[in-house]
Amino acid sequence: MNALAEFYVDEDFVILGFPCNQFGLQEPGNNSEILNDVRYVRPGGGFEPLMTFFEKIDVNGNNEHPLFTFLKSACETTFTEFDSDLFYEPLRIGDLQWNFEKFLISRDGKPYSRYHPIVVDPDALKDDINTLLNA
């Protein structure tokens, strides 16, 4: 994500991060601990994320944040079966199923696309980002 933030630094483009502990219980800390974890542990070495981090939320299940209810309802799921390391209930078709699933949203707040967590190459997102920036 930092590579995209750097590439689009002079554009009308922002990256928002929403920590969540529903996937393999990988984000157990509180909000300040999560950012320190990114800086000093994973990936560490003083890494500074170039995104706005929000408070930790639930993106699925009974306590799902309304933003993610909206995003999931507007975009097709990226998974075809449920993973076993999910920590929420109830499981629903269309749920996010792992960290780093991404949504691209237009300037007017409409979800444009949803990306599977294995999509990590910034170039794989640039065509869609450019389409929205040039709309």
Automatic annotation (TrEMBL):
<keyword id="KW-0560">Oxidoreductase</keyword>
<dbReference type="Pfam" id="PF00255">
    <property type="entry name" value="GSHPx"/>
</dbReference>
<dbReference type="InterPro" id="IPR029760">
    <property type="entry name" value="GPX_CS"/>
</dbReference>
<dbReference type="InterPro" id="IPR036249">
    <property type="entry name" value="Thioredoxin-like_sf"/>
</dbReference>
<protein>
    <recommendedName>
        <fullName>Glutathione peroxidase</fullName>
    </recommendedName>
</protein>
<dbReference type="GO" id="GO:0004602">
    <property type="term" value="F:glutathione peroxidase activity"/>
</dbReference>
<keyword id="KW-0575">Peroxidase</keyword>
<dbReference type="InterPro" id="IPR000889">
    <property type="entry name" value="Glutathione_peroxidase"/>
</dbReference>
<comment type="similarity">
    <text>Belongs to the glutathione peroxidase family.</text>
</comment>
<dbReference type="GO" id="GO:0006979">
    <property type="term" value="P:response to oxidative stress"/>
</dbReference>
